[in-house]
Amino acid sequence: MPLLFFFFFFFVTPTLSLNQEGLLLLEAKNQLLPSSSSSLADWNPRDPTPCNWTCVTCNPNTSHVISLSLSSLSLSGPIPSSLCRLPSLSTLYLDDNFLISPLPSTLSLCTSLTHLNLSGNLFTGPIPSFLSSLPSLLHLDLSFNNFSASIPPSFSLFPNLRSLNLVENLLNGTIPSFLTNLTTLTFLHLSYNPFLPAPLPSEFGNMTNLQDLSLSGCNLLGPIPASLGKLSNLRNLELTYNSLQGAIPESLISGLTSIVFLELYENSLSGSLPRGAVWNNLTHLEGFDASGNDLTGTIPSELTRLKKLGSLNLFNNNLEGSLPESIVEAESLYELKLFNNSLNGSLPSQLGSNSPLQTLDLSYNNFSGEIPAGLCRRGAMQEIMLIYNSFSGRIPESLGDCRSLMRVRIRNNNISGTVPDAMWGLPHLFLLELDDNSLTGSISTSISGASNMSSLSLSFNMFSGSVPQEIGNLDNLVQFVASHNRLSGRIPTSVVKLSQLGKLVISDNELSGEIPLGISALEKLNDLDLSNNKLDGNIPSELGTLPVLNYLDLSGNLFSGRIPIELQNLNLNLLNLSNNQLSGEIPKEFDNENYKKSFLGNPGLCSSSSVSGLCQNLGEKKKNKIKYDWVFRFIFVLAGIVFVVGVTWFWFKFRSIKKIKKKVMPNMLKWRSFHKLGFSEYEVVKLLSEDNVIGSGASGKVYKVVLSNEYAYTLRVNEKSDIYSFGVVILELVSGRAPLDPAYGDKDLVKWVSSTLEQSGEDQVIDPTMDVKYKGEIIKVLNIGLLCTNPLPINRPSMRKVVTMLHEISAIPRTTSGKLSPYYQEEASDNENHHGNTV
């Protein structure tokens, strides 16, 4: 028995073989992870050293732990003090976890640390000043935490620090000039902290070793310091989302000889872009973004001819003049966004021929002339946005071979001719918007190849011929809008296969025949507008089974027969069946004032309530008028007699009641009701006791009183009231405010947001705790909330449209500049109403 005990003890106490550093790591693991966690499962106490463990690196000569990388392991709690008892530890990565404050002062004992990354955790409070006492520290990353207060003055004492990242914290105070004492720094990121508004210290121009400087969203004011032009080693400069003013200094452009990305967007910069030879030194420049400012003047030709220039964003300014011909020399250009300016003239004919152009957005300018034929010559073009210009001529045939195309928006121009046949069937094209041009020809049968097509918008052109049956092959089609054309023939029966279709608008054409059978299969159809065609037959009763149909316009056709009673099942915001050949009685649900104009121009329709003014025929109305004229006169005289008698009786009765009230109820509340009441004030008053108090407010106490009776009363709730409520929720989320607040005065949240936007801009509406890095997306969500709370219900979007817009905001990948075109989510014919007019 003793021998067995010795054998067991000798072989089952393996921790005696693990060295001291391994034991320290196991101690740290037990503090950071629950015992049930499978992370770091190979940290085996039976091993002699931890050198083969996951996330651990040892010196091959000494077997001492030199690196510990515990990123993204869901660690929680404070940092274990045992880690700094590893004498050779030089690299400690604890980023992307759930670690909390405080940082242990024992971190100052990690004297061998060169790399410390604590980003993406839950640290709060001031940044510990003792960090600067780490003598060997080269790289410090505290980004994406909740550190607050000012940057510690001791940070000016780091002897060898090369990179400092404090992005996305809650640091306040001003950006300290003492950071310029860190002459060894090559990387400094302070972006997206709520610093106090102040100019950028000019001393930053003395940090001549800097290669990467990011100060976006730091509340910077005043001009860009010209001294920054001395940073000849700088490769990346980000000063975006600030309030910088004045002109861009020429010395900044001429001095940044190593610059690769220069980002100045979303400020208040003004004046002209620097011109001339100052751009010649920027031979490494790949991206220049000065969008969202107040820049004027023309685009410098010296900028657009830079060989390595890949991305040029100057949208949302006040630039004028033409696009320089030298742009064709930018052989690396892949992104050109100049929308929302006052640019004019023709585009260089070779634009895109010499560069891998992917995105071209020149919308909302005054460009004219033809669309360059070589835009997709390098086979990389994905997005062409030219809306609201004066382009003319034909769509280049070469775009029909551009199989990389995903989005084409050329609406509101003067384009003529036919659409290249192959362009209809491009496999990756999901948005084709050609509205408001002078295009002719037919919709090609090759459209069957456009398997990714989601939105097809062709309104206000001169397209003719029939809608091809092949359109039924577009499984992803969400909206088809082709109003105000010359389309003829029948609606293709294949349209009922479009299971994703939400909007079908082909009004103001020359379509004939009946609505296809099986239309009830379009369960996502929200908007159906077939008005002003030559359609005939009966209105299908199966329309009444479409679960989300909100807009139904069949006016101006030749439909006959009765109105299907199944339409009463729909939750409609608009119903228009006017100017057809319908007959019979109007269904009871629609026989009211709300639908008064929905049935005009149907001589055979009759209203049982006469609210709509419809009847069998005009002759019968005249006959009835003569027949009952004397009855009305008699009733009028009788009513007059009753009125006089009643007033006299009321006067005497009123005097007697008034005397009774003075004696019995001297403090009786005054009542005024606009509805028929089934109770009296006496019944209410006697229940206003302290036992029934359920709350109190600024106006007094609140009592619970149980009474004997297109008493309560209800209003019909439709989708638009739900949309409004959803919009209020969006505004609550974006503003961080309650729907009702005394601070609004006599306004509610919706009115407060609208008035504040108009008077002070979106910065005074958006919740200041929100991440300004996503300001563009936040503003888009804010605009959706405003759309949902439009005072006119008919102008509010459908919930399906809201979901689509929100989905696009979250799903669309960011561009190189980190921003989206504000027209990216704009859907075709968003501004088109149901009568075919644009606003």
Automatic annotation (TrEMBL):
It is a single-pass membrane protein; Single-pass type I membrane protein. The keyword Transmembrane applies. The chain crosses the membrane at residues 630-652. SMART domains: LRR_TYP. InterPro entries: Kinase-like_dom_sf (IPR011009), Leu-rich_rpt (IPR001611), Leu-rich_rpt_typical-subtyp (IPR003591), LRR_dom_sf (IPR032675), LRR_N_plant-typ (IPR013210). GO terms for cellular component: plasma membrane. Keywords: Glycoprotein, Leucine-rich repeat, Membrane, Receptor, Repeat, Signal, Transmembrane, Transmembrane helix. Residues 18-59 form the Leucine-rich repeat-containing N-terminal plant-type domain. Pfam families: LRR_1, LRR_8, LRRNT_2. It is found in: Cell membrane; Membrane. Residues 1-17 form the signal peptide. It comes from the Eukaryota. This is Leucine-rich repeat-containing N-terminal plant-type domain-containing protein. It comes from Arachis hypogaea.
